[in-house]
Design a protein that fits this description.
The chain contains six helices and two strands. The protein is mainly alpha-helical and 143 residues long.
Amino acid sequence: MLDPVGIDRWPVDLAQKHGMRDGYMCPVGGRWVVAFWSPRVLNHSFTHQTRGLLYLAASAAAVRLEQLVGYEGRRIDSRAHLTTREQAVLRHASLGESLQETARALGLGEETVRSHLKKAQAKLGTRNRTHTVAEAMRDLIIL
């Protein structure tokens, strides 16, 4: 069911490198996966009670991890909230318009357009105009 690929596969490769033969993964809370690794193959002696205890330990570990990293309730809707003007400026930028063309179309000054772009860039955590437009489109802020 869990077949990790790419960067997610490194813990499995690391465990096998150090002689771990079998493991039991406990997905907890939709955010964490706690793994128990064993140097021998887990067989029928791995009872339901043992599995229950491992899930209990995994849940306790996940609670502690949440305390350490802090829960961000905003993650549910992590999209940035741009103003109407910022969205309009990004829409014009997505059409390849220059600052002058965007300013003329929206009836704003060039410096105001530049300011809206910078604010959107800061809210989206991007590096340049192209990256800002790409992130806004990816987050469905502009279409």
